[in-house]
Design goal:
Layout (H helix, E strand, L loop, with lengths): L2 H96 L6 H18 L1
């Protein structure tokens, strides 16, 4: 093989190596670009999932607050009804059995409270 042929063969091998290196570099760039696209897609999916979870959270909190308000309102209504009913019964009892002539129910309650306090202090 002549020197010229050797140089041509060496040049051809160098060109082939450069072509392979360029191809490998191109593949690396393509993979990096694909990785960037994949990362962007992951971020978009994560953002969408976060929005979905926030919507679920908001709906759940709203539902629980509605239930809480219903329970509290119902309890207060029952409590007020029981207290009012008890007060009516005690007023009627005091009026019927414990008032003195010309005394109002409020005056009788005050008198009874004072008598009770005096009994407790006398012990």
């Amino acid at each position: 093989m002549s020197e010229q042929q050797k140089k041509e063969l060496e040049n051809a091998m160098n060109l082939q190596a450069e072509a392979q290196a360029a191809e490998a570099h191109g593949q690396q760039l393509a993979m990096e670009k694909a990785g960037e696209k994949a990362e962007k897609i992951v971020q978009e999916v994560a953002g969408s999932a976060k929005k979905v979870y926030q919507a679920i959270e908001k709906g759940t909190v709203t539902g629980y607050k509605a239930i809480e308000n219903g329970v509290v309102t119902g309890y207060k209504t029952i409590e007020n009804g029981v207290v009012d009913g008890f007060n009516k019964i005690t007023d009627k009892f005091v009026c019927t059995f414990l008032t003195r002539e010309g005394e109002t129910v409020e005056q009788a309650k005050e008198r009874l409270a004072a008598e009770q306090k005096a009994r407790e202090q006398g012990k």
